[in-house]
Specification:
The complex is a heterodimer of chains A (116) and B (115).
Chain A: E1 3-5, E2 10-14, E3 19-21, E4 24-26, E5 31-38, E6 44-50, E7 56-58, E8 64-68, E9 73-78, E10 87-95, E11 105-106, E12 110-115
Parallel strand pairs in A: 2-12
Antiparallel strand pairs in A: 1-4, 3-9, 5-6, 5-10, 7-8, 8-9, 10-11, 10-12
Chain B: E1 5-7, E2 10-13, E3 19-24, E4 31-38, E5 42-50, E6 53-56, E7 65-71, E8 74-79, E9 88-95, E10 105-106, E11 110-114
Parallel strand pairs in B: 2-11
Antiparallel strand pairs in B: 1-3, 3-8, 4-5, 4-9, 5-6, 7-8, 9-10, 9-11
The chains are: A mainly beta (116), B mainly beta (115).
């Protein structure tokens, strides 16, 4: 079975400071990992993904994430936060070994609040 | 492409009434997913289809819920009879399979309130 954990319900950061939103995963085989963002009253939007290759992946809006196989983590990062980054962030995993087609398992979400 | 289109965006109904939510996936996508989002339970996968065939409906809460995909461009999620605990935002998402990496494209959601 595949699962993902987001240990923080909320992360607060000052604008201009770096931000990190944490995610750890559990899969039987090798993972495909994703980050999605949800703004109020909107659907989830794809931010970035790790499939294979370079452990540091870059995505939309200046976000990046680092895949760490030994720690089974995929933390989302941004060097300088903006107030407009305030949103709900979801980590998701797909186990490429098991069946289930394109079924993703989502974490519980982390509310990011960036303040002036 | 217009993206995943859901209707209605908002629905307010009374307990016991039938509710039908609709979804048009992105053209060419062969996977379609229905999710439910609530404060208490977060994002839950209800059911998903591959090439219009239901693959996994283990997330459907009970027999009051049913979903169909009569063709590649349309799916419905029906609740009959509806109950107040069904109040949630229901999302439809689609994706490309066939060895692709499987990122999902979500609609804007249908916010259901059952009184």
């Amino acid at each position: 079975a595949q699962s993902v954990a987001q240990p923080e319900d909320q992360v607060n950061v000052a604008e201009g400071n770096p931000l990190t939103v944490k995610c750890t995963y559990s899969v039987s085989g090798n993972p495909y990992l994703f980050w999605y963002v949800q703004y109020p009253n909107r659907g989830l939007q794809f931010l970035l993904k790790y499939i294979t290759g370079d452990n540091l992946v870059k995505g939309s809006y200046g976000f990046e994430a680092e895949f760490n196989k030994s720690q089974t983590s995929f933390h989302l990062k941004k060097p300088s936060a903006l107030v407009s980054d305030s949103a709900l962030y979801f980590c998701a995993v797909r186990d490429i070994l098991t069946g289930g087609g394109n079924k993703l398992t989502f974490g519980t979400g982390t509310q990011l609040k960036v303040e002036l | 492409d217009a993206g995943v289109i859901q209707s209605p965006r908002h629905e307010v109904t009374e307990m016991g009434q039938e509710v039908t939510l609709r979804c048009k996936p992105i053209s060419g996508h062969d996977y379609l997913f229905w999710y439910r989002q609530t404060m208490m339970r977060g994002l839950e996968l209800l059911i998903y289809f591959n090439n219009n065939v239901p693959i996994d409906d283990s997330g459907m809460p009970e027999d009051r819920f049913s979903a169909k995909m009569p063709n590649a461009s349309f799916s419905t999620l029906k609740i009959q009879p509806s109950e107040p605990r069904d109040s949630a935002v229901y999302f439809c998402a689609s994706s490309l399979g066939q060895g692709r990496t499987g990122e999902l494209f979500f609609g804007e959601g249908s916010r259901l309130t059952v009184l």
